């Protein structure tokens, strides 16, 4: 998969992604996130499935579905398994208090559904994603019909909204759910839980990219070690 963050070394992503795959044990139902770091987790789980690991996985996007099928990981759905044992996913930014911004790949709505369905939610990322406080733009998935209303509400929350455009820049990015993505700059986010509630209360917002309550964070470092922190 193409790495959308060319400034980060893919070896750091690989180390973090593969290390978190070791949390998965026989019999688990696993949520598979989206993005270039999670791609390493999926590939590693595929290798372990080849060696006999017995798991079922729920995907968060067409992208992770394709990778899981390619890796030979048997798939299931949230209709069949309402509670997952673990979900492993990437991040656009992680703060020191287990808050995360996601949605750089426009998959955060399904990612949040999967994360909230899991008993344990694990983030995998490279060191460039860490920050003492969140200050990355927040991706917002928006019902297309409500686009202008959402833009107005984002400005009322002192955000600077920008429609996310496709690669050719002549049309909006469309999520796997058929919606638009608006990226909103809020500067330093002093209280992620508060902003999360405010964004969820906006009419026309399908889901936003602030995730709170992450259980474990696996960060791949430049020296190829992985730093693991846990909130429980
Ligand atoms: C997709 C996401 C990704 O997990 C996030 O953008 C990180 O991606 P990458 O691992 O490629 O840097 O939230 O919606």
Characterize the structure shown.
The chain has 232 residues and is α/β, with parallel strands linked by helices. It has two domains: 8-131 and 212-224, 3-Layer(aba) Sandwich (Rossmann fold), CATH 3.40.50; 138-208, ACT domain (Alpha-Beta Plaits, 2-Layer Sandwich), CATH 3.30.70.260. 28% of the residues lie in helices and 23% in strands. A six-stranded mixed beta sheet has the order 2-1-3-6-12-13, sandwiched between helices. A four-stranded antiparallel beta sheet has the order 8-9-7-10. The longest helix has 15 residues, at 36-50. It starts with 9 loop residues before the first helix and ends with a strand. The mean pLDDT is 95.
Measured between the Cα atoms of the first and last residue, the distance is 32 Å
**Which blocks of ≥5 consecutive residues have pLDDT under 50?**
none
Strand neighbour order, sheet with most strands? 2-1-3-6-12-13
Ligands bound here?
ribulose-5-phosphate
Give the ordered list of helices and strands: HEHEHEEEHEEHEEHEEEE
Backbone CA Rg = 17 Å
| The first-level CATH class name of the largest domain | Alpha Beta
């Amino acid at each position: 998969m193409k790495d959308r963050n060319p400034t980060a070394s893919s070896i750091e992503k690989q180390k973090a992604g593969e290390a978190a795959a070791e949390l998965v044990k026989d019999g688990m139902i696993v949520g598979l996130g989206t993005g270039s770091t999670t791609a390493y987790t999926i590939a590693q789980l595929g290798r372990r499935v080849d060696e006999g690991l017995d798991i079922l996985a729920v995907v968060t996007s067409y992208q992770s579905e394709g990778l899981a099928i390619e890796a030979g990981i048997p798939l299931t759905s949230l209709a069949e398994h309402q509670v997952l044992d673990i979900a492993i996913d990437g991040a656009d930014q992680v703060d020191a208090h287990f808050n995360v911004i996601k949605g750089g790949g426009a998959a955060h709505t399904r990612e949040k559904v999967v994360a909230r369905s899991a008993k344990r939610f694990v983030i995998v990322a490279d060191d460039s994603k860490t920050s003492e406080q969140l200050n990355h733009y927040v991706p917002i998935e928006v019902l297309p019909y409500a686009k202008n209303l959402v833009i107005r509400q984002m400005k009322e929350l002192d955000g600077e909204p920008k429609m996310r455009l496709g690669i050719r820049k002549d049309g909006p990015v469309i999520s796997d759910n058929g919606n638009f993505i608006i990226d909103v700059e809020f500067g330093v986010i002093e209280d992620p839980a508060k902003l999360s509630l405010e964004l969820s209360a906006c009419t026309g917002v399908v889901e936003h990219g602030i995730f709170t309550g992450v259980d474990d964070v696996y960060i791949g470092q430049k020296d190829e070690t992985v730093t693991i922190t846990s909130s429980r």
